[in-house]
Amino acid sequence: DCCPLRHGYQTRKMKPFFSLLPFSLLLFLFSFHGAMGNNLIQETCKIFAQNDPNVNFNFCTTSLQAAPASHCATLGGLGMISIRLVRYNLTDTRCYIKQLLKNKKIDPYVKACLSDCFDLYSDAIPSIKQSMKHYHSRRYVDANIEISSVMDAATTCEDGFKERKGVVSPLMKRDNDAFQLSAMALSIMHMIQTESH
């Protein structure tokens, strides 16, 4: 199947002792425990972009805000949304590659690369499905391994085209999106694990 990729109001009650806490700590508490919707997305993506060179702030916010139910998601909810976005990307890219391979006029080298990418994305889909199960069970280390393998698949696919000078990958944006969405999912899991310790 081809899966195409698919905002926020918040209310917070301040308890009296909050006024005694430093502003930076208040911001942290609100960002990760009380904040909902777009503010949580904005704050989360800002942290990702500052700490991970693989995550672009605009890409992160646009991707998460476009997802259904993101306006009322918690940090944990955003994690599941980001993993779903990876899954949609993989499924849609696999379908796109299948269409490209039907072109009989395609360069033989590009066709060979596309065929390799088709296999890589085909293998990545069960991995992302498994990562969703691990994430749901809070087995973040196992989910991390599966999502990391998806990042490897996207990188390996893109690297195949780079091996021959002058060849432009028809999957460059899709490979980059898969990589970046995966990096977002890993960052959210890292944040959740850091908070729980």
TrEMBL record:
One of its GO terms (molecular function) is enzyme inhibitor activity. Residues 1-37 form the signal peptide. One of its GO terms (cellular component) is extracellular region. SUPFAM superfamilies: Plant invertase/pectin methylesterase inhibitor (SSF101148). Keywords: Disulfide bond, Signal. Residues 36-188 form the Pectinesterase inhibitor domain. It holds the Pfam family PMEI. Coiled coil: none annotated. PANTHER family: OS02G0537100 PROTEIN, PECTINESTERASE INHIBITOR 12. Belongs to the PMEI family. This is Putative invertase inhibitor.
